[in-house]
Write a structure and sequence with these properties.
Layout: E1 3-9, E2 13-20, E3 23-31, E4 41-50, E5 55-59, E6 66-69, E7 74-76, E8 82-84, H1 93-96, E9 102-109, E10 118-120, E11 125-126, E12 130-133, E13 139-141, H2 148-164, E14 171-174, H3 183-206, E15 211-214, H4 219-226, E16 232-237, H5 240-253, E17 261-263, H6 276-282, E18 287-289, E19 295-300, E20 304-310, H7 320-342, E21 346-351, H8 358-372, E22 379-384, E23 389-394, H9 401-405, H10 421-438, E24 443-448, H11 450-457, H12 461-471, E25 474-479, E26 488-492
Parallel strand pairs: 1-16, 13-14, 16-17, 20-21, 24-25
Antiparallel strand pairs: 1-2, 2-3, 4-5, 4-9, 4-15, 5-6, 7-8, 9-10, 11-12, 12-14, 18-19, 19-20, 21-23, 22-23, 24-26
């Protein structure tokens, strides 16, 4: 499998595209005026404690106060080590935090919609191969590293590193990228993280409240740290300044990838390669067309994302069961890609077309799992339920692609549909009757959109005449070109 990373940098935003086999799989966007803050460490102040929610709000200098749950507050276990609370051991939030208290926290979720940022006091700082956790005495290993011999080797290197660096506190998580890494590279990461956290501690001691004491790397550097893998063939960057900064990072941390990074000076925009711009536009649509003629409908709501599969124009060749199976199998492949591309998170419900054959259900389920194996976000999938639904979760830390690029429609207020002109006409009739009972006027003027006025003068003309007779007053109409279809006013004359 070939893999390329395209990085488009402008003064106002940075965009990253992960392309596999010529097809866009993931897209990341960071705007200068609204950067993501996941991973940032702040020195904040507790502004409100909510015992009924076992949570507190913390001022970290953002527009909205951030939120921390009691389970995300580290508590002492009587030794030098702090441990996160568990659902069964969560103490009263009032015993952990008090209003006015200063608190060092890290952002685990960006502000999304009306919700503030989500916080934790369990700090962690990532590098290429490791994640350093200063408050935990533990060595963890990514579950994606399955070879037991390799897991033992990596754990041994980190254990030896504690002794060589004379470290007596802190823990590490060994990242997937560390598989096959040399001893020296892992030890270099440990030294780098130790120095970095020491500087963070010094800033914490002197920082005012609220303020940021550690910021994660910019997107184009994080891309090299987190996304580059052995199968990555090229990393192309269209900004010379950013290319130079990336090369400095590569030379220091992942020198073996230096020959894969290149500056892209082409006149053709870099995101026109592999039709990345077109694929991003398609990812904003509800409907995903399948090659067979079937299609997938994706609806993102506040609580969850729902996905529905339909055979559409695909009629198959053999029998109905085979047609349904092939459509679901193709949809499973498309869904795995769309979840990554659209960065959909939280609860996801997939309504596959009902399959009677248990083997077909198993193969579709396995295909979905296979497509999500390459997903950088943590996912969990259930089996096919009695209702034929597949329930899954995908870790959400940042806004989805649609939330970054779009806003709710000001006309329909995010509903996705408008009241018909007929409905508005009848609302106008009811409004006139209501006003006629409450006020005394000689006549009425209705101001509305062109489509509504046309209907009032045409299809509803008999009803208008009957209404005028009933109230004993004349009604005139005026087109307001700037009114939306649902807007209207009734003016007393």
């Amino acid at each position: 499998m070939s893999e390329e990373i395209l990085i488009n940098v402008t003064p106002v935003e940075t965009r990253v595209a992960l392309v596999e086999n010529g097809m866009l799989q993931e897209a990341y966007i960071e705007r200068t005026a609204r950067k993501g803050i996941v991973g940032n460490i702040y020195k904040g102040k507790v502004v409100r404690v909510l015992p009924g929610m076992e949570a507190a709000f913390v001022d970290i200098g953002l527009e909205r106060a951030a939120f921390i749950h009691a389970s995300d507050v580290m508590v002492s276990n009587g030794s030098d080590e702090a441990v996160p609370s568990t659902p069964r051991t969560v103490p009263d939030i009032r015993s952990l935090l008090r209003e006015g208290q200063s608190l060092v926290v890290q952002v685990t979720k960006d502000p999304i919609g009306t919700k503030g940022a989500r916080l934790t006091t369990q700090l962690s700082i990532p590098s290429r191969y490791l994640v350093f956790m200063p408050d935990v005495q533990h060595i963890g290993i990514s579950q994606r590293i399955e070879d037991e011999t390799e897991r033992e080797r990596l754990k041994g290197i980190i254990t030896a590193g504690f002794e060589s660096l004379a470290m007596d506190s802190g823990g590490y998580i060994i990242r997937t990228a560390a598989e096959g890494a040399a001893d020296a590279d892992l030890l270099a990461d440990m030294k780098y993280l130790t120095r970095l956290f020491q500087s963070v501690k010094e800033r914490i001691a002197t920082a005012k409240v609220p303020s940021v004491v550690y910021q994660d790397l910019p997107l184009f550097i994080r891309t090299i740290r987190d996304l580059i893998r052995p199968q990555t063939e090229k990393i192309r960057i269209d900004s010379r300044e950013s290319y130079q900064r990336v090369m400095e990072f590569v030379d220091e941390f992942v020198a073996e990838f230096a020959d894969k990074v290149e500056y892209y000076p082409g006149e053709r925009p870099i995101f026109d390669l592999y039709s990345v711009e077109d694929e991003i536009q398609k990812a904003l649509s509800r409907k995903v067309q399948l090659k067979s003629g079937g299609y997938v409908i994706i609806d993102q709501t506040e609580a969850m994302t729902t996905i529905d599969i339909n055979t559409g124009a695909f009629v198959g060749h053999r029998n109905l069961e085979e047609t349904i199976f092939k459509t679901n199998l193709e949809a499973a492949r498309a869904i795995g890609r769309q979840l990554r591309l659209r960065n959909l998170g939280g609860i996801i419900i997939i309504d596959f077309i009902d399959m009677d054959d248990p083997e077909h259900q198993r193969q579709v389920h396995r295909m979905l799992e296979k497509m999500l194996e390459r997903d950088h976000a943590k996912t969990k999938i259930t089996g096919v339920s009695e209702l034929g639904l597949v329930e899954m979760t995908r870790k959400r830390t940042t806004e989805s692609l649609g939330q970054v690029l779009c806003e709710p429609c000001p006309v329909c207020d995010g509903r996705g549909f408008l009241k018909t002109s007929e409905t508005i006409c009848y609302e106008v009739f009811r409004e006139i009757l209501r006003i006629n009972r409450a006020y005394d006027a000689e006549s009425y003027l209705v101001m509305a959109s062109q489509k509504v006025v046309d209907r009032l003068l045409d299809e509803e003309s008999d009803n208008v005449a009957d209404l005028e007779t009933f109230i004993g007053k004349s009604i005139r109409f005026q087109v307001e070109p700037f009114y939306t279809q649902e807007q209207y006013d009734v003016v007393l004359l």
